[in-house]
Design a protein that fits this description.
Blueprint lengths: L4 H32 L5 E6 L2 H11 L4 H4 L4 E7 L5 H11 L1 E7 L15 E6 L13 E8 H14 L8 H29 L2 H17 L9 H11 L6 H14 L1 H11 L4 H6 L10 H8 L3 H10 L5 H11 L4
Parallel strand pairs: 2-5
Antiparallel strand pairs: 1-2, 3-4, 4-5
Protein name: RelA/SpoT domain-containing protein
InterPro entries: NT_sf, RelA_SpoT
Organism: Streptomyces diastatochromogenes
Length: 328
């Protein structure tokens, strides 16, 4: 049975806390699966604000607002360049129950138009949460590149939110930027592919990509990329098979997940140890996972040797050995 505007509004107020829990669980689920698929991305999620829900009801003049508003929960997956859109889409389809995909990237007949290439996925959220009618909660997933996301956020404020249509020249200027967005995405993708052909850079980049993706299954705290490259350069000398190391590190992280989580809680950037002493810096960095893994087997002797010749502060390594509970 259709709900009136007032009934839909009251229902959304009551159910929003459960929708919010479901979308956060879905965000975590996606982050873990995309990391394992080696898709570098940022995932954000939110339940629609109550005021936004009500505003949309009146703006769109829905006849059945509860069913017609399909973005009560929204997830945004942002990848660095267009080459990662299809891998991300494939993994989303694999790990969620997808209801519908709206993909305008290759729609024929619009080659002469400048438009935001929509890539939206309607999916059932994880956790078996359902409304009182027994209907599973859904979310709308927006999949974009970083450049498209920047353009979309900026243009949305100007084109869709002011309550009146913008001047034609402003609209045209904003849509012209889509051409630059396409060029930007293509150049970033080309640069990534070119870097992958450079042996030394490829090795460090590959290793950092691997460890960052696994690290993101533990925390989304920001880290210093410059420091990561300095440390990764040393750590890479202790790894003979970088191609096979991804699976090895993933298995290590799963095997010792509880122990690693405790280490980050006790010594990470928000811990009392770090805030009091300013030490344990690497416990806030993704390369800490490689250090923990190297310290867990005979590779720690090789790690000690590489570190001694790597011009890195000795206390960085000894602090991490203390965190992991081993002697060097």
């Amino acid at each position: 049975m259709s709900l009136s505007v007032e009934e839909a509004f009251q229902r959304y107020q009551r159910e929003r806390p459960r929708i919010e829990e479901a979308v956060e669980a879905t965000k975590t689920h996606l982050e873990e699966h995309l990391a394992r698929r080696r898709v570098t991305c940022q995932v954000t999620a939110r339940a629609k604000e109550v005021s936004s829900f009500q505003t949309k009801v009146y703006r769109k003049n829905y006849t059945d607002p509860w069913k017609q508003i399909t973005d009560k929960a929204g997830v945004r997956v942002v990848v660095p360049h267009g080459g990662l859109l299809d891998p991300a889409l494939d993994e989303i389809k694999r790990c969620l129950d997808v209801v519908e995909v709206q993909d305008d990237r290759h729609t024929p007949g619009h080659e002469d138009r400048l438009r935001y290439p929509r890539l939206h996925i309607q999916a059932i959220m994880v956790g078996n949460e359902a409304d009182p009618d027994g209907t599973p909660y859904e979310c709308e997933i927006q999949l974009r590149t970083e450049a498209v996301d920047l353009w979309s956020r900026m243009s949305h404020k100007l084109l869709y939110k002011p309550g009146a249509a913008p001047p034609a020249d402003v609209s045209r200027s904003l849509y012209r930027l889509i051409a630059l967005v396409e060029l930007f995405d293509l150049e970033v993708e080309r640069g990534v592919e070119a870097m992958a052909q450079h042996p030394e850079l490829a090795r460090s980049n590959q290793l950092l990509d691997v460890v960052e993706q696994v690290y993101r299954t533990f925390t989304d705290h920001p880290f210093s990329t410059e420091l990561s490259y300095n440390v990764i350069d040393v750590l890479s000398r202790t790894i003979d098979d970088p191609d096979g190391y991804r699976e090895h590190l993933t298995q290590f992280a799963e095997r010792f997940r509880d122990r690693i989580e405790r280490a980050y809680t006790d010594y990470g950037p928000n811990s009392a140890h770090f805030l009091r002493h300013g030490r344990y810096l690497l416990a806030s960095q993704p390369e800490s996972l490689i250090i923990f893994e190297r310290l867990s087997n005979n590779a720690r002797y090789r790690l000690r040797s590489a570190w001694d010749t790597g011009e890195l502060p000795d206390n960085m390594l000894t602090d991490m050995a203390q965190v992991w509970g081993v002697a060097l």
